[in-house]
Amino acid sequence: MTNNQAVVRSHDKLFIGGRWVDPATSSRIDVVSPMTEEKIATVPEAGSVDIDRAVDAARAAFDSGAWTTLSRKDRVAALNRVADEIEARLPEMISTFSSEVGAPLAVSEAFHAMAVQFWRRNAQLLQSYDFEDRRRWDQSAGTVVREPVGVVGAIIPWNGPVANASLKLSAALAAGCSVVVKPAREGPVSTFLLAEALAAAGLPEGLVSILPGDRPVGAHLVDHRGVDKVSFTGSTAAGKKIMQSCAARVARVTLELGGKSAAIITDDAVFEDVLPSLIPASVGHSGQVCAAVTRVLAPRSRYTEFVDVLGAALRGLRVGDPFAPDTILGPLVSERQRTRVENYIGIGREEGARVVTGGGRPQGMERGWFIEPTLFADVDNSMRIAREEIFGPVVVAIPYTDIEEAVAIANDSEYGLSGAVYSGDHEVGQKIARRIRTGQIFVNSAGLCLTEPFGGYKQSGLGREGGVEGIGAFLETKLIVENA
């Protein structure tokens, strides 16, 4: 295996209120390559004092009106400047993310292209967003005013930090809020490069802070009385704890959580047309995506045929160096994550599921946290591997007898984040898609759409990100009543 890993820059300061400042403690985060298992950089780890400073700066910026009193034209221009500054840093951002998280270059390029797109899209939406409207009812009249919620605490995961931070930041700033971002310990360097872009864009002082840290730091941000709204992306287990914390002071909250999304393959679908989008949607980024389509439902009449075709496709995926041009899957982000995935593969075997392909570590890769893309067949939807989020390149194939059973299986889940329907009849596919209880679903395709409303049903989350709904998530509604 080649090793083309890029140089990853260490940092010594934290980004608080738009300025680079000394951290309050000497605690550091070691960034370890998931490919070589060696330390490649360090960054300061934020503590509770740093969070306090950031929230105070965000509150002062919000209360001063330095951002909200700018003309709409100037705020739109500022959002577009951030997009420009990210674009200017794309080569380093892409190589850094691939080095610290292990994403293949194609995945990293796609994630960072999305980040730019989020800033452009919310700048566009801000140009025409309707923050007020006049209404009349009975003998009265009034104005409905949509105002920024205030200071936002945004907690993001490691699997796409610049894209995820940009999704939240661009919408919150479009709404008029100030934001404190808390990235995960894994993959923090990418977010410092985003901070450099934000600083270069010339946003008002205090408006944005980026403070990487572990769970106690995130908990301090969530519990902070100066935070009006929490926007969290991560596991369902962590989301439940955040929701409980926010409930204690009735803080606003948006949660984008886990998933166990299903793809229904109808009996008239052409398998060769299904695979080009299903494969990346199921195991892309080594399956470390909340919206990954990891339950594949195929008709019993063609089940063996489909399992053979899908197994051969997964078997042909190259696992290896993220910087190699022919690599499809890189390593998992950490040893802990690989252990989790291996444990689930063991559970699947114990439950009686059949390993069609994969199920272990690739041969010849003694270093790095690699795992083979794995397909289980003869899976029942009651099995743990069909019900619990694995967050790795593990797909389960479940047979069904008719569409009624397929819909029932797809909906028999604690989650409801994404999904897909593949059918030879597009209209039939549309009808099936409307019956699936999930926040986003594709017909004759699969993937991830974040420029329009994205979020989950059930334990996949609360609220929506992307589109006008994403901006609305950072607004409060006020009615000013006038007597007729």
Automatic annotation (TrEMBL):
Entry keywords, A to Z: Oxidoreductase
Pfam families to which the protein is assigned, alphabetical: Aldedh (PF00171)
A GO MF term: aldehyde dehydrogenase (NAD+) activity
Matching InterPro entries: Ald_DH/histidinol_DH, Ald_DH_C, Ald_DH_CS_CYS, Ald_DH_CS_GLU, Ald_DH_N, Aldehyde_DH_dom
The keyword Oxidoreductase is annotated on this UniProt entry: yes
Catalytic activity reported: an aldehyde + NAD(+) + H2O = a carboxylate + NADH + 2 H(+)
All residue ranges annotated as the Aldehyde dehydrogenase domain in the record: 20-479
Keyword presence, DNA repair: no
Family: Belongs to the aldehyde dehydrogenase family.
Protein name, entry field: aldehyde dehydrogenase (NAD(+))
Species for this entry: Nocardia flavorosea
